[in-house]
Amino acid sequence: MPSEAAVVIDQVTKRFNAHVAVDNLSLTVPTGSIYGFIGPNGSGKTTTMRMIMRIIAPDSGHLKVLGVESFEAANDRVSYLPEERGLYRQMKVRDQLRFFAEMKSKKVTADEINTWLERMGLAEWGGKKVQTLSKGMAQKVQFIGTVINKPDLVLLDEPFSGLDPVNAVVLRDAVLDLKKNGSTVIFSTHDMSVAEKMCDAIFMIYQGKKVLDGTLESIQNEYGSDTIRVKGLHLNTTGVPGVSHVDDFGKYQELRLLAGADVKRILHHVSNTGTLSHFEIAKPSLQDIFMRIVGKDVLETEQVGA
Amino acid sequence: MNKVFTIAKREFKAAVMTKAFLVSIIVMPLMMGGSLLIQYVFRDSKSLEKKTFVVIDRTPGSVIFPKLKKAVEERNKKDITNSKTGKQIDPEFELKNLVPSENTPEAILKQRYELAEQVRERKIYGYIDIGSKILEVSASELQKSAPKDIMSIGSPTQEKHKAEAAKAPDELLIRYYSNSPTYQDFFVWVWQAATKAVQQYRAGKVQLTETSLEHLLLPTFVANKNLPKINKLTGEIEDGKDVNFLISFIVPFGIVIIMFMVIMVGATPLMQGVVEEKMQRISEVLLASAQPFQLMLGKLLGGVAVSLLLGSVYVIGALYAAWQYGFSEYFTPMVVFWFLLYLALAVLMFGSLFIAVGAACTDIKETQSLLMPVMLLATFPMFFLTKVIQEPDGAIARGLSFFPFATPSIMVARLAIPPGASVWDPIIGVIIVLVTTLFCVWVASRIFRVGLLMQGKGASFAEIVKWVWKG
């Protein structure tokens, strides 16, 4: 059913001994969307993904994947790409891909495999063992292995980490193609700009709890236009009245405003310290929001953002 | 079920399509037969350097030395060449007489020491000191109490003989001194020659000629035979063939060793595979495609296939050898059937334990300590092997063949020794092994399920027990 959501998580909790890995989580991933999972290491991303894949069962709550609620059988329509590794090093690329497809109950032809290898620029590597491949090539082989059975739902754990820009583009296009062909894609990433650019919606989990969920726009709206981006020569942005926090990126600086700050006064103050070439009132970047939630100024952010 | 076969196929290929597997096919029998082969090839390659021994003959009139001298000359003429090839295979002995010292303990000891120095300087190989009263009959209480029957005492290399010698006083002994305790040829020869010399001397005392003494001492012979049977081609009764002791020992011995090695070749890659899957995060991909039990079953079937392939290679080789060298009585189709059946079960049983070990560890190094108890279970039947072969229907052999981890090898070994275990024994054995295998697979699957997703550090024994208990 295209109208039905691909994944519905309803008040799911998962504990490992005393540690609560996922705490009363509810989340809906619409069919055909690209959903980004973000969150610091150990916050519950992998546990959530493993529950969606039915590798582990939740302790409580309901979890529907592609319309079916079951914690028993592995699902041939769901595929998973683990972070970095996930291949038999002694196996040849082609054998490996055939094996992964068969594990999803799908017979693939040599043509199908070749088409994929060519598309990923791996045409000459089909007969080679995985251990002879570079990290980027292995990552692409892994990706083919994940999608070769044309799954309805694809979970990718850090698919772009460790790739050079050329390969990152190849893989990005392949992910976007999945969406075009009607698959639902969930991927986790630490790269906020990738999440901003590619995802229809973003979900952030922190200490087992959902802290963000929605489109980039809706998330940014929640935080309001509380950021000023400035560029220029010899600017001094310390001690500006109405500014709670400054991020210096080198080429430009971001000032976070306190509630009710006077923008004109800030403009005046900053332009007096040097030559101002750019002054922009902006919404906070995903990176900034992430840092506000996770960083040490978490309390202050709550006061300002609310 | 298709997924199970997909996994089995992969495990099979991963184990078989390697150089290590090809090498192991050739190396395993070499390792096993190697020492036997070397001993066989070099059985005639002794040092042929002449060995010189000094004889101190303390008997009154030194009557033993001339007889020994005569015996050694005969030996050097007749007994040191291979009768077929005419090639010399044993060294010549040379005997030198030395006048005995004064009959005081100090003088005797001094003389022995001087000779010892000559041995150390390699001037002579060794020396014997013949006690003064060895010619006498009933010279002491000891000689009266000692067994009269030479057969029951055995040669000087045997324990009973050594025990009697230890009790005897100096003058009733022939003492052999050398710096080569493992070289036994000479003192065994001396024992035979001296015994004969003493017997001849005593015979002379009762007016018996040497010839009539030889007639008196003429031994009888016993041949060890297999049971007669009916030749199926001609329908006639055939007398049993001579028992080939070497073959009747080697066949069951070989079966047990081969079974152990084939189990290891089948089971070890399973453990390594699981560790690799954990290290390379493949297990997550697999678990997203199949249930843990399917995964494990696939792996086990793959391992069984590997073992059966290797086992069949050896069975075919053994059948050929049995046909070629005529020991097919020890290697009947029945033995082959039970061998392969028990092999398959043993791989399931040990394979599941190996998989559990792999699942509980995060790298190969960690597996070593956990593997120890499993290996002990697999190897301990071999400690009893000689006993089992000597008494295949004895209490130890029977008992051991019903202990599940020993059943596969010990039961087949018992079956390979004619007349073989009773019909019911292997069937009961299969049931016992089957039940144990199911239990092992169950335990392993519980460890496997939890262990597969565990990263970072290996599980302690207590944790593993908890996984099994709580799942």
Structure explained in plain terms:
- The complex is a heterodimer of chains A (306) and B (471).
- Chain A is an alpha/beta fold and 306 residues long.
- Chain A has helices at residues 45-52, 93-103, 110-119, 135-147, 165-180, 192-198, 216-223, 263-273, 286-294, 298-305; strands at residues 7-16, 19-29, 34-38, 60-65, 78-81, 153-157, 184-188, 201-206, 209-214, 227-233, 243-248, 253-257, 275-282.
- Chain A has a 6-stranded mixed beta sheet, with helices on both faces. Chain A has a 4-stranded antiparallel beta sheet with strand order 11-12-10-13, with helices on one face. Chain A has a 3-stranded antiparallel beta sheet with strand order 2-1-4, with helices on one face.
- In chain A, α2 packs parallel to α4 (135-147).
- Chain B has 471 residues and is mainly alpha-helical.
- Chain B contains 19 helices and 6 strands.
- Chain B has helices at 2-16, 19-41, 64-78, 105-120, 141-145, 150-153, 159-167, 185-205, 210-217, 245-279, 282-287, 292-325, 333-360, 364-383, 385-390, 395-401, 407-415, 424-451, 461-470, and strands at 51-57, 93-98, 126-130, 174-178, 229-230, 237-238.
- In chain B, the strands form 2 sheets. In chain B, strands 2-1-3-4 form a 4-stranded mixed beta sheet, with helices on both faces.
- In chain B, β1, α3 (64-78) and β2 form a beta-alpha-beta unit.
- In chain B, α13 (333-360) runs antiparallel to α17 (407-415).
- The two termini of chain B are 24 Å apart.
- The model of chain B has no long low-confidence stretch (mean pLDDT 85).
